[in-house]
Automatic annotation (TrEMBL):
The keyword Cytoplasm does not apply. It comes from Coprinopsis marcescibilis. Pfam families: TauD. This is Clavaminate synthase-like protein. Residues 1-23 are annotated as: Disordered. InterPro entries: AlphaKG_dependent_hydroxylases (IPR050411), TauD-like_sf (IPR042098), TauD/TfdA-like (IPR003819). Gene3D superfamilies: Clavaminate synthase-like (3.60.130.10). It comes from the Eukaryota. Keywords: Oxidoreductase. GO terms for molecular function: oxidoreductase activity.
Amino acid sequence: MATQVEAPPKYGPQADIDYHPNEEKWRARTARRLAEDPSLPKRPLPKGFPKSFESSLVWGAKDWTDESQWVYKLTEAELKEIDDALKHFNSLNLRKGHVNRDTFPLPTLGPTLRDLSRELHYGRGFFVLRTIPVDDYSRDDVVTIYAGVSSWVGNLRGVQDENASVLAHIKDLSSIHPAKTIGAPAYTTEKQVFHTDAGDIIALFALETAAEGGLSRISSSWRVYNDIAQNRPDLIGTLAEQWSVDTFGGNPPFIWRSPLFYHDGKMIIQYARRVVTGYQGLVRSKEIPPITEAQAEALDTLQFFSEKDNVELNFQKGDIQYINNLSIFHARDAFVDTPEKHRHLLRLWLRDEELAWSLPEGLKPHWKAMFYTATPEEQRFQLEPEIRSALKGGGVKEAEK
C-alpha cells in the first residue's frame, strides 16, 4: 500500500492540472496525446480486467425517474422507535462509541435498514433516509441518533483522523479560518469534484441545507469504467498503476497508491483529486514524483465522464444519505449560505462486516487502520465543526483521506 522512496531522483515537470477541472485543458491534452501516439485507444486493458460490467451498480440518470425509487420515508411509528432507542441508550450511561444494534434497538425499523444495506452492497448502491426531526433534539442526541440508526446499515465506524474521530462536520469554515489552514473543499462553499471518500459506505446527515446551491450529485463509477474501457482502455491501465500520493509534509513525504482495483469480480476506484493536485493550504509538494500527462488525462476523464451522466439527490434537512463508496462517485455543487441557513452535514464512514465486499491487498492496511484501531471507549464524536488535523498541513497519514 505504502512505499517510501528514500532518495527520490529528479523528475520531469508536473502536469498542468489543478483541483478544479478545466474541460478545455482536458480536451487539448487528450488531442495532444492522441496525436503523439494514435495507438493509445487500441491498447489492451490490464490483464484480467473486463471489457465491461453488467450489474445493477451500472446506471445513469435515465434509470431514475422519481426520487421515490431511492428515498425511504420514515413513518411516525418508526420515528417513535428511534426516539425510544435514544432514551434506552441514554439510560445506559455509556460513551457514544458503544452505540450499536444492541444498545440502540430498532425492532421493526432495524430489519428494514438491513435490507437497505443489502441494496447498498448488491443493488443500486445508494438510498436516502427521510427525515429525522433534527430540531426536536439537542446536538448531542442528534449525534447519538445518527450513530444508532447508521449502526444498522454498517456495524463498524471508521476513524477519520489521528484523534480517533469517527464523526466529521462538513461546513463552510472559511470565514473563521484562513485559506492556508484549509486543505479540503469540505470546509468551503466551493464546488467539490467527483471523488470517493474512505471506507465501504459514506453516510451524510443534513443538519441544515444551503440557502442556495449545494446540490449533492452521484455517478456510477462502474458505468464510468465501462465508458473509459470502451473508448480509452489505455487510461484504465493508467488508473491501475501506482500513483504518488502527497502526504503534505508527512513521513514518508508521499506514498504509492493505485486508484483502481479489479478484485473478486468487482471494480473499485478509490481516489480524491486533491491528494494528487493539492488544495488551498495543502500545496502539492515539489520534491515528490509529479503527476504525468497520462495521469492528468485519466484524472480529468474520471471527472468529465462522471459529470455527463449523474443523478441529483434532493438532500433535505434531516435526511441521511447512504452511498456505496466502492461503486459510486459523489460531488457537490457550490453554494451560498445566509445567517439563517448555513449548510451543515455530519459524516460517518461505515463498514458492514456481514455484507462487505472482499478487499484487494492494496486497500487492506488502510481499512484496518480505519475500522480496527479505535475501541468504543476511544471513539471521538465532536459536537462542533473543526478542521481535521490531516487537512491543516503537517502531514496526512496513510489512513486519512
